Amino acid sequence: MAGSPQAAVKGGRSEYGVALLLLALGAWAISDALTLTDTASRGPVNARTVPILVGLLLVLMAVLLTIDLLRGGRGEQEGGEDVDLTHGSDWRTIGLLVGSFAANALLIDRVGWPVSGAILFFGTTFALGSRHYVRNAIISVVLSVGSWYLFYLGLGIKLPVGILKGIL
Amino acid sequence: MDGINALLEGFGTALTPVNLLYAFLGVLLGTAIGVLPGIGPAMTIALLLPLTFSLEPTQAFIMFAGIYYGGMYGGSTTSILLNTPGESASVITAIEGNLMAKRGRGAAALATAAIGSFVAGTIGTLGLALLAPQIVKVAVQLGSPDYFAIMMLAFIAVTTVLGSSKIRGLASLGIGLLIGTIGIDPTSGQQRLTLGIPELADGIDVVVVAVGLFAVGEALWVAAHLRRQPVEVIKVKSARMSRDDWRRSWLPWLRGTAIGFPFGAIPAGGAEIPTFLSYATEKKLARHPEDFGKGAIEGVAGPEATNNASAAGGLVPLLTLGIPTTATAAVMLGAFQGFGIQPGPRLLDQQSDLVWALIASLFIGNVILLALNLPLAGMWARLLHIPRPYLYAGILFFASIGAYAANTSTFDLWLLLVIGLLGFFMRRFGLPIVPAIIGIILGPVAEEQLRRALQISNGELSGLYDTWFSKAVYAVALVLLVAPAVIDRVRARRGEPALAHSHANQEGE
Questions:
Q1: Which pLDDT does position B86 carry in this prediction?
Q2: How far is CA B266 from the centre of its chain?
Q3: Does the pLDDT value for residue A6 go beyond 50?
Q4: Which of B177, B393, B420 minimises the CB distance to A124?
Q5: A35: Cα within 13 Å, side-chain hemisphere
Q6: pLDDT number for residue B506
Q7: What pLDDT was estimated at residue B250?
Q8: Domain residue spans in chain B?
Q9: Whether A159 and B404 lie within 8 Å, measured CB to CB
């Protein structure tokens, strides 16, 4: 299930971004650790030690990854039952998914889960290419209201009810 | 024999009607979610975690037991009936299983997988029940340096044994350790890597991490590459096998169990290698080796039993040492911690009711699994037809509920999105997920042991390796680091192809 050779070659340049990210994360860990003043711990190991070690590990891996990439090494994209690696990532779908997800995060405390959850489900099915609007809307509402009842009554977890207060 | 008595008491707890219901629910949900394509056992547990939030620990553990085996078996059904498997432990099962299904022998493939899982799961759980008290006897004498050594071994094993690229495995481990460090340092009370955000002071909730990396990351990744043409699912009505199938299956089941259990019990990276070993063994021992490659039932029976036995074996280090060896075990460990329970040698003393109820439930769950899967195989198979937009929309929907319900906080939803995007990019660039999740969950525990060990030794670094046990563990770790390179070199000299690890980047079993 390795990525096809063309797909692996296409993503070549962006792989250096991974090394850059590792470098940035490592630098963050080390610089954050250096601001700590630990007076409670004895010995050579204190609150700084582990973040510094982890930071060094990340920086080292950034360097080794860069060398690996220069030598022609490539990260192997993950396959799967529904995954087709012959074309590149579909950024429009990702954008729509992230948008639906963000809409839920923004709305959940204001309008409640029964509404925001329905928006999330409807939005994601749309993003994934389903165009049965009526059926999707019905499923979205049944799922979000049903899950709200399940968590609220069945499990005692109070998901926000929002604008439907008094109705549900 | 104290284990047997305690186990009987565990059955006493687990066999009450309410607890039986939880075990049944666990198996049912575990199988139903696990059979869905693209959902491996680790994601199954992560997605179902919120359902246990309001339960007592005993009930929650009983439900986990059911979900654990249910999710494991669900994945096998998927790999037999769909062409391409989604989780590494089922890859081998899929080879012959799918060929059998294509030749119209799907019912027999499912049956030998189900019964083999039952046999292996039962023997494996028995092994767990007998072995756990013995290991605890040794483990209580181990000190912080020893635990730290075992955790280092777990880190090394998960990054080197699995995966095609050690650099990417270690990078993933580093990312995991970094995320695990976020929050207030328990020893000094200092905030680390919190960026001054108060919600991060308590660290990132394990539900958010697990659901983010496995569920959201996977859903985003698949969505970006969704296969537009419908996948081909082979139809089956039920799972049953003929007398001849039985004759050809029972020995592979037992051999698979014998291979899988020890591999699961040592921290050496899950079910991928033992299932491969089992496949090779069966191929060598088969009376009709020419059947391999055309759908040999031995090639399903052996690896499938191995897979389940290794799942049972994986619970040994998890319960006795607090060391997860697979992604699924890591998520379980995180779930236990969520209930304020830290698995380890003292768990069996202090919470023995809980542990034995869990082990008894594993036996019960296995029986329920068999009862659900043999007659209802056709129904589970129908779940494979779920339209993909609904499947992945559902994953994001339930992932959001789970992350929000953990602390009823919107902040966790944003965090979930960030970690989900991280999971997406890790899949894109071939960084394996398993080392990250092990690093996140085991990292803080390892740090605690490191600091405790050095406090005892008054800061002397030799305090980390001055026990015979820690020395032995570091020696094993060294072998793990060196051996693969040596083996590859020898193979190259002989002109054989290197061991293919092409599935290692997938979600671990």
A1: 55
A2: 13
A3: no
A4: B393
A5: 12
A6: 38
A7: 92
A8: 2-492
A9: yes
Distance CA A80, CA A88 (A): 15
- Contact at 8 Å (CB) between B309 and B264? yes
A–B interface: beta-carbon pairs under 8 A: 262
Average pLDDT over residues B500-507: 40
Q: What is the per-residue pLDDT for B75?
A: 83
Which of these, B317, B307, B45, lies nearest to B154 by C-alpha position? B317
| Poorest-pLDDT segment among B127-136, B483-492, B495-504 | B495-504
Interatomic CA distance for residues A102 and A106, integer angstroms: 6
Question: Which of A123-132, B183-192, B484-493 has the largest mean confidence?
Answer: A123-132
For the residues B215-233, what does the mean pLDDT come to? 84
Lowest mean pLDDT among A80-89, A127-136, B30-39: A80-89
Percentage of chain B lying above the pLDDT 90 cut: 44
Find chain B residues with C-beta within 8 A of A147's C-beta.
Answer: 397-398, 401
Question: Residue A7: its chain B contacts at CB < 8 A?
Answer: none
Which amino acid does the sequence have at A126? Answer: F
> How many other C-beta atoms lie within 10 A of the C-beta of residue A166?
6
Phi-psi sector, B82: left (phi>0), alpha (psi -120 to 50), beta: beta
Give B-chain residues touching A18 at CB under 8 angstroms: 171, 425, 429, 431
The C-alpha of A11 sits at a distance from chain B's nearest C-alpha, in angstroms, of 9
Q: Which of A34, A81, A106 should one mutate to test binding to chain B, selecting the residue with the greatest count of B CBs within 10 A?
A: A81
Query: What is the C-alpha R_g of chain A?
Result: 23
pLDDT for B350-398, tens place per residue? 888 899 999 999 999 999 999 988 888 888 888 888 888 999 999 999 9
CB nearest A64 (choices: B167, B425, B505): B167
Cβ contact, residue pair A147, B401, below 8 Å: yes
Residue B496 has pLDDT above 60, yes or no: no
Query: ∠ at Cα B491 (B489, B494), nearest 5°?
Result: 115
- How far is it, in rounded angstroms, from Cα B318 to Cα B350? 16
Instruction: Name the token pair of B350.
Output: 């202090």
How many DSSP H helices and E strands does chain A contain? 6, 0
Alpha-carbon B300 to chain mean position: 20
Cα angle value A99/A100/A104 (rounded, 5°): 115
State the average pLDDT over residues B111-136.
93
Confidence at A162, pLDDT banded by 50, 70, 90: confident
Cβ contact A29–B178 (<8 Å): yes
Q: What is the DSSP string of B182-201?
A: -EE-TTT--EES-TT-GGGT
For residue B226, give the 3-state DSSP assignment. strand
